[in-house]
Every structure is written in structure tokens, then in C-alpha cells.
# Entry
Amino acid sequence: MAVVPYKDNSDSKRVQVETMFDNIAPKYDFLNHTLSAGIDVLWRRKAIKILQAKNPKTILDIATGTADFAIEAIALNPDKIIGVDISEGMLAIGRKKIEKKNLQQRIVLQNGDCEKLDFANNSFDAITCSFGVRNFEHLQLGLAEMLRILKPNGTLVIIEFAQPEKFPIKQVYNFYFKRILPVIGKLISKDTAAYTYLPDSVKAFPYGAEFVGILSSLGYTNCKAISLTFGVANIYTASK
Ligand SMILES: C[S@@+](CC[C@H](N)C(=O)[O-])C[C@H]1O[C@@H](n2cnc3c(N)ncnc32)[C@H](O)[C@@H]1O
# Structure
């Protein structure tokens, strides 16, 4: 059964995820950077560096949220970055950040669902997605849609949480992720479920070789996983 934020609610995962991110949007950046001690910023930077050699001119950031990954991608000096997300609350915060940095000519945010994107086949040199895929209602549909709109030889870069496997990191991390993070997250975001959904959804989500296998089975090539910070997260890269 799908892991959803609000267990007693009968709405689809997509609707629940949208509601949850709308709820936590004002506190999302603060909580992200606090709960990860800023490491998430370094992960995004590392993922964007992987794209440097490809020199992508058109980039689509899927599940862009408050646009941190899209803003980081400016380092690649592309012609255009488009960010899409289903949560208007997250997009509104992202747009404010983009305006503050005077990047509105180069980054455009729009509402869009990864499962049905309003772009022609073979549109983008690179597609990025950080901490988004775990929230998709139908993972394979979303990944297949990304492949459709990626140009031939284009590159996909995904960051997603994984599960550390080695003692004692696994034990320490699980204690933090399951016992401490949900309490701080609930206190600050005021959403009763969002920071319980986070560890629950990570636990149920494929990672490492399994996720690489899903990308390959959908037709991506050169699929790889790069482990981050003792296996807490992975960068996945793939080509079309
Ligand atoms: C954890 S946030 C990540 C935001 C941003 N990429 C980052 O690195 O901070 C996950 C985002 O995925 C978005 N999302 C979930 N399902 C989606 C879908 N089907 N299509 C597009 N965005 C989706 C949520 O609205 C949310 O903003």
C-alpha cells in the first residue's frame, strides 16, 4: 500500500502530497537546512557539478518546490531553467527567492504534475529532480514522462534519500530520522504528519541498485548511483 502523509484521509497520494507541501511551504527551507545541518545544500551543489561537463542549455527541474535546485543550476549558465511542481504554496516561496536574486528572466516556475507534463518530446538537455521522486503517486509514470521530454543524449540527475546500511551510522541515523526529526518537524511546521511521512516514505522507497534497475528498465542508459554522506542519500544519473 502506498505511503501517504495523512493515513486516515481517503484522498489520492498526489492530493495529500500537494496539501502537505502547501501546509509546510513557509517553514520548508528553514526545516530543510536545519534538520540536515545544511548538508542538503552541498548535495545539490555536487549534483549540479555532475552536469557541468554536459553544458546543458535547457534544464527542467521537476518537483522544484521552493526552487533551491533550480537556483543552484544557474551555475551551469544555461539559457533557460523551468521548474515545475504541484504545490502552489511551494512555488510561491520559490518565485519570491528567484525575484530576490533577480533571476526571473532565467528561471520560470510553473504548476505541473510529473506524470503528465505539458512539454513536447525531446525538449530538454537536462532534467533534475531533488527529493521529489519519492513523493510521486506513480513513480514509473513520472520517470517515463521525464524520459519522453529529455533530448537524446540528455542527462537526468536525481537526488533522493536512501537508507544507510552500516553499523553504527544506520542505528544513529535511524534514531535521529524516526525519533528526533518528526518531533522538531511537527513543532515548527505545525503539520501533524509531514515529518512522520518523511521517514516512512524513505523506508518504503527503492534506493541504490533497485532504483538504478527501475531507470534501466524504463529505457534510460548509463544509469548510476552515487552514495552521499554514509549512504543517507544518493545522486542518480542516467542518459537518454
Ligand atoms: C521534498 S520537496 C523537494 C523540493 C525541492 N526539489 C528541494 O530540493 O528542496 C518535494 C516536492 O515534490 C513536489 N511533488 C510531489 N509530487 C509531485 C508531482 N506529481 N509532480 C510535481 N511535483 C511533485 C511537492 O509538491 C514538493 O514541492
Observations:
- The CA atoms of residues 182 and 195 lie 5 Å apart.
- Residues 13-162+206-239 form a domain with the Rossmann fold fold (CATH 3.40.50.150).
